[in-house]
Design brief:
single chain; 2 domains; five-stranded parallel β-sheet; nine-stranded mixed β-sheet; 15 helices; Rossmann fold; about 475 residues; alpha/beta
């Protein structure tokens, strides 16, 4: 019995249109001759979605992009149309292919290209030269050949390149299959370890279904009328807004209003992750960097006692600065030096290194306790205190951090978050240990991917909700692990 026939390789053809119409047809015919599937915008017919969005969607569904670049820039979508007002649609397709790990085969027209097919605008010519030089990838060059005809030399180049790619594709699929098998085993082990209290969950603020409480959206809300995709990091936006507000109290009041308003009116937090955290019989510690109180509210509904542990960033006359603050679900509170702190006797200990934004409001006003680490200045102050034994990470947390690997759920690393995490891990000596960190996340950017690598983390391309759902489904069987 033979296995199912693999699907044909899907190839997106990216180029300007009028000047490369014959070349596009040749590429399409060569693709079809390999019994592969050509994907070309002219085959799509009428579409209701915007062109840029449609191109990105089509690129994502392909294995390969054949990129043809001559000497015309082509259409440049505006920001309103989904572009940036500078990159051509071809450049946007190339960028999206690289961001989504879609292979690219570039072909460049040589400088003998007919003059009437060149852009005459000087700025377009300069842009094209920069784009071609910036491809940063080997490319085949082709000529115009005859003004009419079948382009035999170009057809041979494309045919050879696709044959070479086929071997690469086979090897890539074989490696991916082996990696998938290894990842499946790895993530299964991670789920089992977490279910038995042998992982420390690290909860970020990327859990709400509408992304209203994620760091990018909060940064955009602080700096009004900013697109979340273009917003500065939350720490940078917060630094700017605090200075504009003129006082710490006014700034924190504004930030609390944003978080509370979005949490109550717009955001829908999926409670699957919280259900998992409540359902695991024993957890040494939960680290949370979210700003809302959804986790605490869920634990309270389940009848589980908890205590929030944070750092006191500032206080009246600096009397308590740097001490560890403990706020219990009963409202009782206490504070200790780091090396004198003991673990509270509760069902769940929630460590909030970035502060307890709402919980601190119930403390006596005369203490003027502020635990929030939000602005760039806050981050620098927090990092500097990690070097002191009295103000560092609570001493009883060191052993769990060193003993149990961490698993990040709903956490996106930006520059300041990376610095904090790196410094925290260095202070308890866990950076670089094999298997010490797993992130259930597909990084948004190459910078974030690099940051996880620097932390020695393994990333798993799965949503926190799906991961938690898998843990809950297998929790009874894994309890004896």
């Amino acid at each position: 019995m033979t296995g199912a026939r693999p699907r044909p390789i899907r190839v997106f053809v990216s180029s300007t249109s009028d000047d490369l119409e014959r070349h596009r047809k040749v590429v399409k015919d060569v693709i079809v001759s390999h019994e592969w599937t050509p994907v070309m915008m002219e085959h799509m017919g009428a579409m209701t979605e915007e062109t840029v969005s449609a191109c990105r969607r089509l690129v994502e569904g392909c294995d390969l992009v054949v990129l043809l670049v001559a000497w015309r820039r082509g259409w440049v979508p505006t920001k309103k149309q989904g572009g940036d007002g500078d990159a051509s649609i071809t450049a946007l397709e190339l960028l999206h292919a690289r961001e989504n790990d879609v292979d690219v085969l570039p072909f460049l027209a040589d400088e003998c290209w007919p003059g009437y097919l060149w852009d005459r605008n000087e700025s377009d010519q300069k842009w094209l030269e920069a784009f071609r030089e910036g491809l940063n990838q080997p490319a085949d060059f082709f000529s115009a050949e005859e003004p009419e005809g079948s382009l035999p030399a170009f057809e041979i180049k494309v045919g050879k390149a696709l044959l070479d790619y086929k071997q690469h594709y086979i090897e890539k699929m074989r490696a991916r299959s082996q990696a998938d098998a290894g990842n499946a085993s790895s993530i299964l082990f991670t789920r089992k370890a977490l279910a038995t209290g042998k992982r420390i969950p690290f909860i970020g603020c990327e859990l709400d279904a509408n992304a209203q409480l994620c760091s990018r959206s909060l940064a955009a809300a602080l700096v009004e009328d900013t697109d979340p995709r273009e917003a500065a990091s939350l720490a940078t936006a917060a630094e700017y807004v605090e200075r504009a507000c003129g006082s710490r109290d006014a700034f924190l009041a504004e930030f609390r209003d944003i978080v509370e308003g979005r949490g109550n009116a717009q955001a829908k937090v999926d409670e699957t992750v919280f259900e998992m955290l409540a359902g695991i019989p024993t957890l040494p510690l939960i680290v949370a960097t979210s700003w809302d109180t959804s986790l605490e509210q869920y634990l309270a509904k389940q009848g589980l006692s908890y205590a929030i542990v944070s750092h006191i960033m500032s206080s009246s006359e600096h009397a308590l600065d740097g001490r560890i603050l403990v706020i219990r679900d009963t409202g009782a509170f206490e504070h200790h030096l780091s090396d004198e702190f003991t673990m509270p006797d509760v069902d769940r200990v929630i460590y909030r290194p970035m502060g307890a934004l709402f919980a601190q409001d119930n403390l006596p006003p005369d203490l003027e306790i502020d635990t929030v680490v939000l602005t760039e200045t806050d981050h620098l102050k927090f990092i500097s205190r990690l070097q002191n034994q009295h103000t560092q990470i609570p001493a009883p947390f060191h052993r769990p951090f060193q003993r149990f690997p961490l698993i990040f759920l709903g956490y996106a690393l930006d520059t300041w978050q990376y610095r904090i995490v790196m410094q925290v891990f260095r202070s308890v000596q866990i950076v670089g240990k094999s298997g010490s960190i797993t992130a259930i996340r597909r990084p948004d950017t190459e910078l974030e991917r690099f940051a996880w690598q620097q932390l020695g983390a393994r990333t798993e391309d799965q949503s926190p909700t799906d991961f938690a759902r898998d843990v809950l489904a297998e929790l009874p069987q894994m309890a004896a692990f």
